[in-house]
Design brief:
Blueprint (H helix, E strand, L loop, with lengths): L2 H23 L11 H23 L1 H8 L4 E7 L5 E8 L8 E4 L8 E6 L2 E4 L1 H4 L5 E3 L4 E2 L4 E2 L4 E7 L5 H13 L6 H32 L1 H5 L14 H19 L2 H21 L2 E3 L2 H6 L3 E7 H5 L5 E7 L9 H12 L5 H14 L6 E8 L3 E7 L13 E7 L1 H6 L6 H12 L3 E7 L2 E9 L6 H10 L3 E5 L4 H11 L3 E4 L3 H14 L5 E6 L5 H6 L2 E5 L12 E3 L6 H35 L11 H20 L15 H7 L7 E4 L3 E5 L8 H25 L1 H4 L3 E6 L5 E6 L1
Parallel strand pairs: 11-18, 11-20, 18-19, 19-23, 20-21, 21-22
Antiparallel strand pairs: 1-2, 1-3, 3-9, 4-7, 4-9, 5-6, 5-8, 10-22, 12-17, 13-14, 14-15, 15-16, 16-17, 23-24, 25-26
Helix pairs in contact: 1-2, 1-8, 2-21, 5-9, 6-8, 6-9, 8-20, 8-21, 9-20, 9-21, 12-13, 20-21
InterPro entries: ATPase_P-typ_cyto_dom_N (IPR023299), ATPase_P-typ_P_site (IPR018303), ATPase_P-typ_TM_dom_sf (IPR023298), ATPase_P-typ_transduc_dom_A_sf (IPR008250), ATPase_P-type_domA (IPR059000), HAD-like_sf (IPR036412), HAD_sf (IPR023214), P-typ_ATPase_IB (IPR027256)
GO molecular function: ATP binding; ATP hydrolysis activity; copper ion binding; P-type divalent copper transporter activity
Organism: Rotaria socialis
C-alpha cells in the first residue's frame, strides 16, 4: 500500500534534484521543482495514518473493555473445621491456584472462575454474557471471573485459573476473530494485486500523454503550467512540458488509494465481532460472519436447544378418591424418597419437584431399591415425616413407579380412564409416570422437557427472514411431532442417532445450491460432529464453556433468539463491507481521472499535496463507515409479537412432515391436498366429533357453558382425531 506514495515522493525528489543540477550546470534561471511535494505528502499521509489509527482503535473497543475486566488480585482465605475464616491474604490473580478458597465482598470483582461454597449474592454478568439483569447466586452456583459481585459476601472455590478462565478464552476468541480474514476479503486482495501496477501504468501513460501533447499542441497546454505569467519566456518548452507531465503523473500516484480497499473488510469485521461479543455472541472469525448471511436452511437440535434440556413435573394427579390420607403432597414425598436412589432424568425431575415444594433437600429413607431399565422401580419408603406430618412416624410404604407394563407386571390394573388420561399427555409429547403405593395405583406424574419461552418467536422470526427450519432429534416420533407443533417447525426428523446427525447435514448440503448455506444449532454436547459439518455451527447456551471447538458461533446466554441476532449482524456487516467497497472503488474511479487532468478544460486540477490529502481522507472515511456498525442493536423480541405472529400461531401445528431416521417419511399432522379422499374423511371425522361433543356439552351443562368452551381439532392420522376442549 505504500508503493504508490514512495514512487510519488521519490520521483518528485529525484526529478527536482536532476532539474536543479542541470540548470546550475547550464547557468539557467531557477527551475520549477517539486521539493515541496515529499514533505507535504508525508505530512498528510502521517496525519491520515494517525487519524486512521485513532478510528481503528475504536473498532477494537469491545476487546479493550473485556481486557479491562481482568481482575488484578483476590483475597485468599483459610477456614477452620467449622468453616470460619482463620487467615486472609491478598494475592495477585496470577498466583491463584485451582482449589483455592477466595473471599469476595460486595462491590469487588470475582477474581477467577469458581463455585460458591458459602454465602449468597447477586452478580452483574452483563459485560460477559450480554445479560442486562443481575443474576442471583447461591451455594453451588458457578461464578465467572471478571464479573461484579453486587450485594452479598461470599466464599468461593477456584475451578478455572489463568488461561482456562472464561474471560481469557473470550478475549482469545475475539482477538483471533478480529485478525482473521473473511472470504470477501479475497475480492479486495485480487483488486489490490493488480491495483498498484495498474496505477503505475496510468501514471506513466499520463506522463507520456502530456509529453506528446506538449510537443504537438504546446500553445493550448502551456497556460496550465506552474511557470505561468510573464516569467514563462525565461523557460524552454521542454522545461514547461516536463514540469506539467511530472506534476500530473505524481498527482495520479498520490491520489490513488489502495488503503481504502484494504481497510474495507478488516475494519468492519473488527467492529462486528466486538459488537457480537458485547451482546454475548462470539463469532470465531470473518468466515462465519460472512457465511451466516447466506444461510437458507437452519437445523435445530431439540434437547437443550428448542427445549430447556431439564425435564420437570408439569402435572400431578391422584386416582384414589376415597383415601383421605393420600394427598398430592404425600404422594410427592413418597415418590421422591423412592426415586432418591436413581439418577434417571425422570427421577431427578420428581426429586426437584419435591425440593421446590418442601424447600428442603431432606427426604425419607429408601430401602430395598430395585430398578428395571425401561420399566420402572420398586422400593420401600419410610420416615417421610421430615417432609410431611405422619401420625405413625415408623410407617412404611411399598412403592412402584414406572410405565403401564410395570404396573401390569405387579398386578395393578390400569383402567381405561387412567389410560386415557395418560394418552392425552403423551399426545403432547409428555411422559406419564404411574405411581403405585401399597398395591394400589395411586396417581400419576406428568413430566416434560418444556420448550424455551422464546422458541416459537425465534422460529417465526427466522421464517420471516426466508429461512427453512428443520427439527433434528433422537426422540421418538410422537414427542418430536408435539414439540414441532408447539414451535412452528414444519420439517421433523425423529429417532436420529447422534452419529447420523452429521450424515444428515452432509446429505442436505449435497442437495442444496452451493451458494445456499446450512446452519446447525445445538448445545455442543452430543451434536458436535453436526455442528462441525454445517457451514455455520451455532452452539446455544454454552455459558462459560466458550471454547466449543465444533461451533463457529458461540452464544454464551441460553437465549435462542440470539440466533436471529447473529444472522442479522452478519447481514448488516456484509452490507457495510459492500458500502466500503463501493466507496473505495468509486473514489478511485472519480479521483484518478481528475488527478490526471481530464477537467483541465474547466480549469479544475489537483496539485500533488491536494491529492495526498484526498487519499488520506478516503482511508479515514472507510474506517468511519465501519465504525457505524457500533450502533447495531439487538432486535427487541417483542417487536415480533405482532398480528403476523398471531396469525402464524394459528397454523403453526399444521402440515408437519415427520420422518423416522434420515430416510423415511412418516406423515403429516394435517393433510391439505384436495385430491386426497383420506383427507376428506379425516376432516369429516373431526367435524363429526366436534358436533357430537358440542351437542353433549349443551345437553349436559347448557348453552351457557358451551359458549365458554374453546375447541381445537387436529387430525393426527388418517382415521384418528384429537379434540382439545378448554374451559
Amino acid at each position: 500500500m505504500d508503493v504508490l506514495i514512495v514512487m510519488a515522493t521519490t520521483i518528485a525528489y529525484v526529478y527536482s534534484v536532476l532539474i536543479m543540477v542541470v540548470n546550475i550546470i547550464l547557468k539557467l534561471d531557477s527551475p520549477m521543482t517539486f521539493f515541496d511535494v515529499p514533505p507535504m505528502l508525508f505530512l498528510f499521509i502521517a496525519l491520515g495514518r494517525w487519524l486512521e489509527n485513532v478510528a481503528k482503535g475504536k473498532t477494537s473497543q469491545a476487546l479493550k473493555k473485556l481486557m479491562s475486566l481482568q481482575p488484578l488480585q483476590g483475597v485468599l482465605v483459610k477456614l477452620d473445621e467449622r468453616g470460619k475464616i482463620i487467615e486472609e491474604q491478598v494475592i495477585l490473580a496470577q498466583l491463584i491456584q485451582r482449589g483455592d478458597l477466595l473471599k469476595v465482598v460486595p462491590g469487588e470483582t470475582i477474581p477467577t472462575d469458581g463455585r460458591i461454597v458459602d454465602g449468597t449474592t447477586t452478580c452483574d454478568e452483563s459485560l460477559i454474557t450480554g445479560e442486562s439483569m443481575p443474576v442471583d447466586k447461591a451455594v453451588g452456583a458457578q461464578v465467572v471471573g471478571g464479573t461484579k459481585n453486587l450485594v452479598g459476601s461470599i466464599i468461593m472455590q477456584a475451578t478455572h485459573v489463568g488461561q482456562e478462565t472464561a474471560l481469557k478464552q473470550i478475549i482469545k476468541l475475539v482477538e483471533d476473530a478480529q485478525t482473521s480474514k473473511a472470504p470477501i476479503q479475497e475480492l479486495a486482495d485480487k483488486i489490490a494485486g493488480v491495483f498498484v501496477p495498474f496505477i503505475l501504468i496510468i501514471s506513466f501513460a499520463t506522463w507520456l500523454i502530456y509529453v506528446i501533447i506538449g510537443y504537438t499542441a504546446y500553445d493550448s497546454l502551456k497556460k496550465h503550467s506552474s511557470y505561468g505569467g510573464s516569467n514563462m519566456t525565461h523557460y524552454s518548452q521542454s522545461e514547461i512540458v516536463f514540469e506539467l507531465a511530472f506534476r500530473y503523473s505524481i498527482t495520479v500516484l498520490s491520489v490513488a488509494c489502495p488503503c481504502a480497499l484494504g481497510l474495507a473488510t478488516p475494519t468492519a469485521v473488527m467492529v462486528a465481532t466486538g459488537v457480537g461479543a458485547a451482546s454475548g455472541i462470539l463469532i470465531k472469525g470473518g468466515e462465519p460472519l460472512e457465511l451466516a448471511r447466506k444461510v437458507r436452511t437452519i437445523v435445530f437440535d431439540k434437547t437443550g436447544t428448542i427445549t430447556k434440556g431439564k425435564p420437570c413435573v408439569v402435572d400431578k394427579q391422584i386416582f384414589i378418591e376415597d383415601d383421605d390420607h393420600l394427598t398430592l403432597d404425600r404422594m410427592l414425598a413418597i415418590a421422591a424418597t423412592a426415586e432418591s436412589g436413581s439418577e434417571h432424568p425422570l427421577a431427578l425431575a420428581i426429586q426437584n419437584e419435591c425440593k421446590q415444594r418442601f424447600r428442603t433437600e431432606q427426604k425419607g429413607q429408601c430401602l430395598d431399591f430395585k430398578a428395571t431399565w425401561g420399566y420402572g422401580l420398586f422400593a420401600r419408603v419410610t420416615g417421610i415425616d421430615c417432609l410431611i406430618p405422619e401420625s405413625d412416624t415408623q410407617r412404611s410404604y411399598t412403592v412402584l413407579i414406572g410405565n403401564r407394563e410395570w404396573m401390569v407386571r405387579h398386578n395393578l390394573n390400569v383402567s381405561d380412564r387412567i389410560d386415557r388420561a395418560m394418552s392425552i399427555h403423551e399426545q403432547d409429547g409428555h411422559t406419564a409416570v404411574l405411581v403405585g403405593i401399597d398395591n394400589k395405583l395411586a396417581g400419576m406424574f406428568v413430566i416434560a422437557d418444556e420448550i424455551k419461552p422464546t422458541a416459537p418467536l425465534t422460529i417465526f422470526a427466522l421464517q420471516s427472514l426466508g429461512l427453512h427450519t428443520i427439527l433434528l432429534t433422537g426422540d421418538n416420533i410422537k414427542t418430536a411431532r408435539a414439540i414441532a407443533a408447539k414451535v412452528g417447525i414444519k420439517s421433523v426428523y425423529a429417532e436420529v442417532l447422534p452419529t447420523q446427525k452429521e450424515r444428515f447435514i452432509s446429505k442436505l448440503k449435497e442437495k442444496m445450491d452451493p451458494n445456499e448455506k446450512i446452519a446447525m444449532v445445538g448445545d455442543g454436547i452430543n451434536d458436535s460432529p453436526a455442528l462441525a459439518r454445517a457451514d455455520v455451527g451455532i452452539a446455544v447456551g454454552s455459558g462459560t464453556d466458550v471454547a466449543v471447538e465444533a461451533a463457529s458461533i458461540v452464544l454464551i446466554r441460553d437465549e435462542l433468539f440470539d440466533v436471529v441476532t447473529a444472522i442479522l449482524l452478519s447481514k448488516k456487516t456484509i452490507w457495510r463491507i459492500w458500502i466500503n467497497f463501493i466507496f473505495a472503488i468509486g473514489y478511485n474511479t472519480i479521483a484518478i481521472p481528475i488527478a490526471a487532468g481530464v477537467l483541465i478544460p474547466a480549469n479544475i486540477h489537483l496539485k500533488p499535496w491536494m491529492a495526498s490529502a484526498a487519499m488520506a481522507l478516503s482511508s479515514i472515511s472507510v474506517v468511519l463507515s465501519s465504525l457505524l456498525l457500533r450502533y447495531f442493536r439487538k432486535p427487541e423480541i417483542r417487536t415480533y409479537e405482532n398480528s403476523s405472529y398471531r396469525q402464524w400461531c394459528t397454523t403453526m401445528s399444521a402440515n408437519i412432515e415427520v420422518h423416522r431416521g434420515i430416510e423415511n417419511v412418516v406423515g403429516t399432522s394435517q393433510r391439505t391436498s384436495p385430491t386426497s379422499s383420506r383427507s376428506g374423511t379425516s376432516s369429516k371425522l373431526s367435524q363429526l366429533l366436534v358436533d357430537a361433543v358440542s351437542t353433549f356439552v349443551k345437553q349436559s351443562f347448557g348453552e351457557k357453558v358451551k359458549s365458554k368452551l374453546t375447541t381445537t381439532t387436529t387430525t393426527m392420522d388418517d382415521n384418528i382425531g384429537l379434540i382439545v376442549i378448554k374451559k
